[in-house]
Amino acid sequence: MKILLIEDSVELSDALMELFRLNGIMATSKTDGQEGYQEATKPGYDAIVLDLMLPSLDGISIIRRLREGKIQTPIIVVSAKSEIDDKVKALSLGADDYMTKPFNTKELLARINALSRRKGDIEPKVISYGDIKLDTSTHELVKQDSRISLTLREYELMKALIDAQGGLVKRDFLDNKVWGYDGPNMYNGVEVYASFLRKKLKALGCSTEIKAMRGSGYRLLGKK
Question: Most buried residue, 6, 11, 27, 30, by most Cβ within 10 Å?
């Protein structure tokens, strides 16, 4: 596994680099936002661990530029910013996870492993339900000639819903499928990503909808 760490605190960066080394993870470290962005555009990284408050170029801008450039490397934000709005903004722009400092290093490793496993678990086919298709090789939601990119967690949620073909997907299954580790869901992750997906379905002009079933889970509504 190969990780890119973009963190301007030299002390924290050194500690995380040692953590990665001890766990057999290859890692590159950048303390400047612009340099980190340039490194992140290079192929070969399994995940990016990204701070938000950086010199030269902030983390939010890095996320936006990478996703606009169709670079889908999973991104885990690690930031002292703990407000829900900060988390939602980073996730809506394309980050795949968000951890608030200080954080548990074992949990960070678990999240990195979960994301990297999903990055490699891609089937070269298109699956569909209603008037939408999901390209599993590019992680794009498709309607006719229009496409929109999904983050890794959006993709996991949408794939689970399409695989169910209109059937109920239980909440506990989605918690495990989307997050991929045992730990507290501090900001209602499934609800957040369902909201992101609804906006993307609307942007594509899809009639298929994501329906929340109170207390049980989610399902897709649309003509098969």
Answer: 6
Which tokens belong to 137?
């090789």
Output the DSSP codes for the chain.
-EEEEE-S-HHHHHHHHHHHHHTT-EEEEE-SHHHHHHHHTSTT-SEEEE-SS-SSS-HHHHHHHHHHTT----EEEEES---HHHHHHHHHHT-SEEEESS--HHHHHHHHHHHHHHHH---SSEEEETTEEEETTTTEEEETTEEEE--HHHHHHHHHHHHTTTS-EEHHHHIIIII-SSS--TT-HHHHHHHHHHHHHHHHT---EEEEETTTEEEEES--
Residue 170 confidence (pLDDT) above 50:
yes
Identity at 57, one-letter amino acid code: L
* Residue 196 · residue 154 · CB < 8 Å: yes
Phi, psi for 214 (deg, rounded to 5): -50, 125
Tokens 């408050």 belong to residue: 53
Residue type, 118: R
In the predicted model, is pLDDT for residue 152 greater than 90?
no
Q: Can you read off the two tokens belonging to residue 2?
A: 């190969």
Residue 94 has pLDDT above 60, yes or no: yes
Over residues 97-121, mean pLDDT: 81
pLDDT digits (tens, 9 = 90+) for 122-132: 454 789 999 99
